[in-house]
Amino acid sequence: MYALRGCILALHIFGVVYWIGGLLMIASLLARVPDEVGLPKERFLGVARGLFETATNIGAATTIGLGILLILMDPAVLRQGWLHAKLLLVAVLLFYHVRFYRRIMFLEDHPSQSTRREYRVIHGLVSLLLIAILLLAVMKPF
Q: pLDDT under 50 in the chain at which residues?
């Protein structure tokens, strides 16, 4: 049972890396959109959408699905404060996940309606969320 839990935990962590890596790549791509004109702008948006629809969604589904499975394997963890804080941060990450989707859709119709600064800030926030989530999961401070 311990080996199975370890495998699931490793895949859960892989999903987190895949998900957040996708979000960070999308932020970097969308930060370049305001500087481009014509076909390159369309290509950046196409790549961002493709990355979102594959890597980011797969990473999110893997992370959330295996996280739920880990909780079901050890329901006592639900009484620990660090998990509550971690789940709150994951909810914030889901907010940015949806925000990226909505921004990609909007920018496909209005490509001039973005700023480089907006995506640099979001890139930094997603990075901070990753650090905070990892610290909570590893240190379990509460």
A: none
- Please give the structure tokens belonging to residue 50: 């493709």
With beta carbons less than 8 A apart as the criterion, state whether 34 and 114 touch: yes
The Cα 66–Cα 51 span in angstroms is 21
Tell me how far apart the alpha carbons of residues 16 and 130 are, in angstroms, rounded to a whole number: 9
Nearest to 56 by CA among 126, 132, 109: 126
Handedness of CA 78, 138, 4, 18 (dihedral sign): positive
Distance from C-alpha of 56 to C-alpha of 18, rounded to nearest angstrom: 7
Query: Whole-model pTM?
Result: 0.90
Domain boundaries, the chain: 2-139
**Cα 124 to Cα 142: distance, rounded to the nearest angstrom:** 25
Give which of 5, 117, 124, 14 is closest to 63, Cα–Cα.
14
Structure token pair of residue 42: 């369309």
Distance CA 140, CA 83 (A): 8
Interval 31-57: pLDDT, tens: 888 877 777 888 888 999 999 999 999
Predicted confidence at residue 37, as pLDDT, reads 75
Rounded to an integer, what distance in angstroms lies between the CA atom of residue 63 and that of residue 36? 34
